[in-house]
């Protein structure tokens, strides 16, 4: 059962405290009294309150000063304060109340229905904030559990893969002469399957990390990032000749490390899917789409059936068989997470055997 919210009633006159309690006694809350400004501040330091009903004219420390001091303390700065006062209802007194940090000023004689309706609103707001805070805390615990799971995946699932791949390679290197062609083929398939499993684990962990990453925005040279990724691809596959066109001066306000991950996945896909193309070409550029700048990675590779375009960015969704093109089916899901973290959108155009073009925007602000 959830804890009842507290309402603090502050007045130096006992009769006024009793009358206020009588008005509020049917509300689902706990009423706490304070008979002075100092007493009110002590309560605000010790307890959490949904609202404070604060008298203005009190000896030693008046209500306006109590409100100003409460606003200076991190623990109480956001507690709604309603002044309840017998002062004259003037614009000046109303202004003084709001300037002191009150959310409302009620002048005596009070209308009980107005007072009750306002307190009910703040009780409901407090319950909503409390529920949201509990949900955020539960989300944080879920993320902590996810981190622990990722650690387990990274270590526990990799453990059996290392000897599986290692022993297969030892057999192939040291005992190949004793094996017939079929046995060697089977060992190669085992080693390749271990590699694919390792890549799948890597991609799953990368997807998880990207999903939780908070972008740190700065001016990013997308042209330079793309050139760096392409240089790595060329070093790893020096035998291939591909026409590469990267537009100069592609810039954006973005997280450099996250955008590099997105470009790596897009460019590796373009490199891979032009592998069987005569005169392959990859282009990186931008164009205006409405009021936005859309960056793109275009290739003239195998392309895809446009009617399945909505499946491209789903994890584990592949439009080409692993026999034709290796991969885990997670790369484009990672791209989508990166772009969405920047408040942008990503989409693709293409046709079978006519290449593909992947567009993305980087507004620089996370949506929602």
Overall spatial form? elongated
The CATH class name of the domain at 217-368 reads Alpha Beta
CATH H level of the domain at 217-368: which superfamily?
A: Histidine kinase-like ATPase, C-terminal domain
Evaluate the radius of gyration: 32 Å
- CATH fold description of the domain at 217-368: Heat Shock Protein 90
One letter per element, helices H and strands E, the order comes to EHEHEHEHEHHEHEEHEEHEE
Helix segment tally: 9
Percent of sequence in beta strands: 15-25%
Question: Can you characterise this structure?
Answer:
The chain is an alpha/beta fold and 368 residues long. Among the domains are: 6-110, Rossmann fold (3-Layer(aba) Sandwich); 217-368, Heat Shock Protein 90, CATH 3.30.565. The chain contains nine helices and twelve strands. Helix 3 (63-72) links the parallel strand 3 and strand 4. Helix 8 runs antiparallel to helix 9 (331-341). The model has no long low-confidence stretch (mean pLDDT 84).
Descriptive tags:
Heat Shock Protein 90; alpha/beta; Rossmann fold; 368 residues; single chain; elongated; five-stranded parallel sheet
Can you summarize this structure?
The protein has 368 residues and is of the alpha/beta class. The chain contains nine helices and twelve strands. Among the domains are: 105 residues, Response regulator (Rossmann fold, 3-Layer(aba) Sandwich); 152 residues, Histidine kinase-like ATPase, C-terminal domain (Heat Shock Protein 90, 2-Layer Sandwich), CATH 3.30.565.
């Amino acid at each position: 059962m959830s804890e009842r919210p507290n309402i603090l009633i502050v007045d130096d006159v006992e009769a006024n405290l009793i009358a206020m309690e009588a008005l509020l006694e049917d509300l689902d809350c706990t009423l706490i009294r304070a008979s002075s400004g100092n007493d009110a501040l002590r309560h605000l330091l010790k307890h959490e309150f949904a609202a404070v009903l604060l008298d203005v004219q009190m000896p030693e420390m008046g209500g306006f000063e109590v409100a100003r001091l409460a606003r200076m303390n991190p623990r109480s700065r956001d507690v709604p304060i309603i002044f309840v006062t017998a002062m004259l209802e003037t614009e000046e007194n109303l202004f003084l109340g709001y300037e002191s940090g009150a959310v409302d000023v009620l002048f005596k004689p009070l209308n009980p229905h107005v007072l009750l309706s306002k307190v009910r609103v703040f009780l409901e707001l407090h319950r909503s904030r409390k529920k949201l805070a509990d949900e955020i805390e539960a989300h944080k615990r879920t993320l902590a559990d996810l981190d622990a799971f990722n650690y387990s995946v990274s270590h526990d699932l990799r453990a059996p893969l290392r000897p599986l791949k290692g022993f297969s390679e030892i057999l192939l290197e040291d005992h190949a002469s004793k094996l017939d062609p079929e046995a060697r083929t089977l060992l190669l398939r085992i080693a390749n399957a271990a590699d694919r499993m390792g890549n799948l684990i890597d991609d799953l962990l990368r997807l998880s990390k990207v999903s939780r990453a908070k972008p740190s925005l700065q001016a990013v040279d997308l042209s330079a990032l793309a050139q760096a990724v392409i240089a790595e691809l060329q070093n790893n596959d020096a035998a291939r000749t591909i026409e590469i066109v990267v537009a100069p001066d592609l810039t954006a306000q973005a997280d450099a490390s996250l955008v590099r991950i997105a470009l790596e996945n897009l460019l590796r896909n373009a490199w891979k899917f032009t592998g069987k193309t005569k005169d392959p070409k990859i282009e990186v550029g931008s164009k205006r789409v409405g009021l936005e700048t859309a960056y793109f990675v275009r290739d003239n590779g195998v392309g895809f059936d446009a009617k399945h375009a909505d499946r491209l960015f789903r994890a584990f969704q592949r439009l080409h068989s692993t026999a034709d093109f290796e991969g885990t089916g997670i790369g484009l899901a990672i791209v989508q997470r990166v772009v969405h973290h920047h408040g942008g959108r990503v989409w693709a155009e293409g046709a079978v055997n006519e290449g593909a073009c992947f567009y993305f925007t980087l507004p620089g602000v996370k949506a929602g």
